[in-house]
Amino acid sequence: MTSGETTDAAVKSTASELVEDGRAKVNLTLRVVGRRVDGYHDLESVVAFADCADRLSLLPGPKLELKTAGPLAEACGEVDDNLVLKAARLLAERVPGLKTGIFTLTKTLPVAAGIGGGSADAAAALRLLATANGIATDDARLFEVAKLTGADVPVCVASQACVMTGVGESLLPLALPKLPCVLINPRVAVATKDVFAALGLRSGELLVGFADVLQAMVWPEAGASLEEWVEAFAASSNDLEAPAMKIQPVIGEVISALNGTNGAWLARMSGSGATCFAIYENTAEAGRAAEKIRRDHPAWWVHAGVLS
User: Fold this and answer.
1) Is the pLDDT of residue 259 over 90?
2) Residue 216: DSSP 8-state
């Protein structure tokens, strides 16, 4: 089974309906710098976006609503708690007379999966509301609402490769090449809060040394080859991988399955899991690897595509 759909246009409209894709976010690297005194964790992460996505539409109208559809609609939980509505309500508090309407979320990305599905949906909602209300994409109110909605929502608003630091509010664009990949989720949910709890940092504790904190992340320059980028990623890690495996040992099985395919250059967990990815030299190898894993593990969610 494959996930999501690829779209050639970020925004489409049919009659008065507006449509946006909420693309899956993939953390190629993730370093936990430490835990702040307010309880939040400071991170450094290289983020890219996949060509699989949820689909969110907005039919402007007098009442704010959210409907869910798609193969994973039931996994969305209580509609009133959805981040799409949270983002819309927060924006309405800051934009007098905000035009809203009926959102329809076609859910194809797994939830609680480390690929920012809910955050991508909320970001798509903000882009749709900005379009419907003539709000500029760089409007400070959009960024404020994104931060208040969730730590991964700001990076998902632009959905462009970047270095994300702090608690997700500092974004530095990155010129990544196209990265052929396979994404796998073993269809088990992993709560981010549980993974950070398993990491075990105390309030105010640093996970890395002071000198490491001062050292800026250095990545290949624009135009560098795919191989150079993969080597740079391999020199880093995902600090949440080990604690996530303690909660869901199947993550180790997923990484082993990816490493067992021909042509896998790098296999790693994304975010707080349980979704994992592998990078390949080309899309043909990625496609063959995905087919093998689907045969060996038919219950897993598998997507072959490109990160950018």
Assistant:
1) yes
2) P
Is 296 considered catalytic here? Answer: no
User: How many residues does the structure list for the chain?
Assistant: 308
- Structural domain boundaries of the chain? 11-173, 179-307
Closest CA to 179 of 28, 58, 292: 28
> What is the rounded distance in angstroms from the CA atom of residue 134 to the CA atom of residue 125?
14
Helices (H) and strands (E) in the chain, counts: 10, 11
Annotated catalytic residue within 21, 51, 54, 152 = 152
Q: What is the C-alpha separation between 233 and 296, in angstroms, rounded? A: 28
Those residues with Cβ within 8 angstroms of residue 126's Cβ, 6 or more apart along the chain or in another chain: 87, 91, 142, 145, 146, 153, 157
Helix axis angle, 140-149 relative to 83-94, nearest 10°? 140
Q: How far is the C-alpha of 48 from the C-alpha of 132, rounded, in Å?
A: 27
* Catalytic annotation present for 152: yes
- At the second CATH level, the architecture of 11-173 is 2-Layer Sandwich (3.30)
Q: Which of 25, 42, 54, 107 is catalytic?
A: 25
Written as six digits, the tokens of 106 are: 């076609």
Question: Do residues 183 and 50 lie in contact, with contact meaning Cβ atoms separated by under 8 Å?
Answer: yes
What is the C-alpha to C-alpha distance for residues 261 and 168, in angstroms, rounded to an integer? 33
Minimal CA–CA distance to 233: which of 171, 167, 169, 163? Answer: 163
Domain 179-307 in CATH 3.30.70.890: yes
Structure token digits, residue 305:
């595509």
Cβ–Cβ under 8 Å, residues 257 and 298? no
- For the stretch 102-154, pLDDT in tens is 999 999 999 999 999 999 999 999 999 999 999 999 999 999 999 999 999 99
